[in-house]
Amino acid sequence: GITKHYKFNIKLQKVTRLCHTRKIVSVNGKFPGPRIVVREGDRLLIDVRNNVQNNISLHWHGIRQFRNGWADGVAYVTQCPIQKGQSYVYNFTIDGQRGTLWWHAHISWLRATVYGPIIILPKRGVPYPFAKPYKEVTIIFGAWYNTDPEAIIRETLQSGGGPNVSDAYTINGLPGPLYNCSAKDTFKLKVKPGKTYLLRLINAVLNEHLFFSIANHTLTIVEVDAVYAKPFETETLLIEPGQTTNVLLETKPYSPEAKFYMSARPYQTGFGTFDNSTVAGILEYEKLHVTSSHSSDPKLPIFEPVLPPIHDTNFAANFTNKIHSLASDRYPANVPQKVDKRFFFTVGFGLSPCQYSNKTCKGTFGEKFTGVVNNVSFTLPKTAMLQAHYFGKSKGVYTTDFPTHPEFPFNYTGDPPVTNHMMVRHGTKTVVVPFNTSVELIMQDTNTLGSENHPLHLHGYDVFVVGQGFGNFDPKKDPAKFNLVDPVERNTVGIPSGGWVAIRFVADNPGAWLMHCHIETHMSWGMMMAWIVLDGKHPHQKLLPPPSDLPTC
Ligand code: C2O
Ligand code: CU
User: How far apart are CA 288 and CA 193, in angstroms?
Assistant: First the structure.
C-alpha cells in the first residue's frame, strides 16, 4: 500500500439551504465533507487542525483500527478532544477491509455537519465479486438544520424528548425538490441506458433510519458496512444511522430525458413520528446526442417510488433477514462456532431520578430521560479511557463492573414493571474481556417507555449477526435457529423494535471500544457502554503505544 495525506481544516462555513443561511462547522469549508478514497492496505495520515471554538474529534466509522484505538477518534474514550488551535494526525492503515465507510465528528452533535464518505477500493488488480460497474456514485444521506443542531439537542434533552427534528433530509447535502425553496438544490444523477452503476449509500442522518428507493428500478444489494453480501434484489432498502450499503443499479432502455426520483424518507418506531418527509434526487437518462443546448422539457413527468409506511417494522425485519455475507472462498465468513463468554444486554430508556424524586437531573444538560443498557446510563469521563487503560490509571476514570446480564430480569417486551424505568444507574462502566475471547451478545429491546429500533454500533469490530426475532429472546429455543454459516457481518446492527438480535465476534482487537446506539439523541441520553479488550501475550497482540501528538484534556 501507499501512504495518503489529507489535510482537514475544521472551520466555520456559511451554507444556505431551504432559504436559510447558517454558519456551520465544516471540514475545509465543504458540506458534506471531503471524500477519502484509498485502497485496501493503504496508510492514511489525516492532519486535523481545529480552527473553531468547539472541541472536536473525528471518527473513521467502521475502520477496524487494529491495536490502534488512538486513531478511533471518540472524544473521551480513545482521545481527548482537539481544542481550538490544536491539531492531531490520525494515522492508520486499512487492513483487510474494502468497501464503503464514512467519517464523522464524534463529540457532541457536531456530526450533524461534519461528515463525509470513505471509499476503500480493493487492492490493485483484485476485482469486485460482482460485475464491474460502469460508474460508481456516492450517496450520503444527511439532515439539514435551519438552526444550530447543538442548541436543538440541548432543548430536546432538557424538555424530555420532544421532536428533535431536522428541517430536511439531504442527499450529498441537497434537500431536493420536495422541500420548499430547494429545487435548485437537487442531487442529479445522469445515466446511460443499459449500464451498471454502483451506488455507495451512507446514512449519516443524526436520528433517523431511512427507506430508499428509485422509481421503476431495482437495486441489487452487494455489500453492507464494507463487507460483501450475497447479492439480492430489492425495490426498497432500509439503511439505519451509521450503516452503509452498496447496491448495483442496472439502467433500463428508457428514452433520453426520462426522469425518476430517488427518494428516502424515515422509518420510525419510537416516541411518535418526526416525519419531516422526503428527500429526492433525480435519476435522469442522458440525451443520446447532444446536438442542441436546449434544457430538458420541464413538463416531462418524474416518476415517484412508493416507499413503505413510516412504521413498517415488518418490512424492516424482512429486509434485514435477507442480508447474508458472501461467505465465498475468497471472502469467507469466519463465524465463531464456539462461545467463550455470553452476554445479555437490554437496551431501552429510563427516567432520570429527578423525575420521581427531588434529586437534581444528573446528565450534562439536565436531561429527563436516560438511554440505558442493562439499566446503566453511560457517562463520558473527563479524560480519555484508552490512555487511562494503557497507563494503568483507570481509577476515577472508569469502572469494570458493567453488568453482563440484566440484574432484575422482567418481561422486556411485555408489560414492563412500573418501577423498571426508575432503576437507572449512571456511570462509566465497562466490560473487560481477555484477548481473543469469543463473545456472544444478545441485545434485547425493552418497551420500558416505548420500544424502538436501535442501531447499535461497536467500535473497532465487525460482528456477525447470527439471529434476530420479535418478542423476548428465548435462550432455550432461539439459539438452535442461529445462522452460523453466512450471517451478515457489520459494524452497526439494528435491534428490532420490540425484539432482539444476537451477535458474535472474537475480541481480537485490544483497546477501549465504545458501543452505542447510533441515534444521536439516544446516545446523548447515555445509551452507550464500553468494552476493554486486554492485550494478548505476543507483541503483535498488544495495543500500540500512543502517538506523541495525542491531545491532552
Ligand atoms: Cu459512527 Cu461511535 O460512531
Ligand atoms: Cu437507540
Answer: 9
Q: What single-letter amino acid sits at 8?
A: F
pLDDT, tens digit, for every residue of 416-455?
666 777 788 999 999 999 999 999 999 999 988 888 999 9
Same domain, 293 and 403: no
- Ligand 1 pocket (Cβ < 6 Å) reads 59, 61, 74, 104, 106, 242, 457, 459, 514, 516, 518
Domain assignment of residue 463, yes or no: yes
We report the CATH number of the domain holding residue 111 as 2.60.40.420
CA distance 72 to 518: 16
Ligand 2 centroid to 450 CA: how many Å?
11
- Ligand 1 atom showing the smallest separation from residue 492 Cα: 1
> Per the domain annotation, does 174 fall within a domain?
yes
| Domain assignment of residue 548, yes or no | no
Supply the ipTM of this predicted assembly. Answer: 0.99
Ligand 1, atom 3, lies closest to the CA of 61
Q: Is 288 buried (19+), middle (13-18) or exposed (0-12) by CB count in 10 A?
A: exposed
The ligand 1 atom at the shortest distance from the C-alpha of residue 516 is 2
Ligand 2 centroid distance, CA of 41 (Å): 33
Q: What is the pLDDT of residues 455-483, one digit of tens each?
A: 999 999 999 999 999 999 999 999 999 99
Tell me the whole-structure pTM to 2 decimals. Answer: 0.96
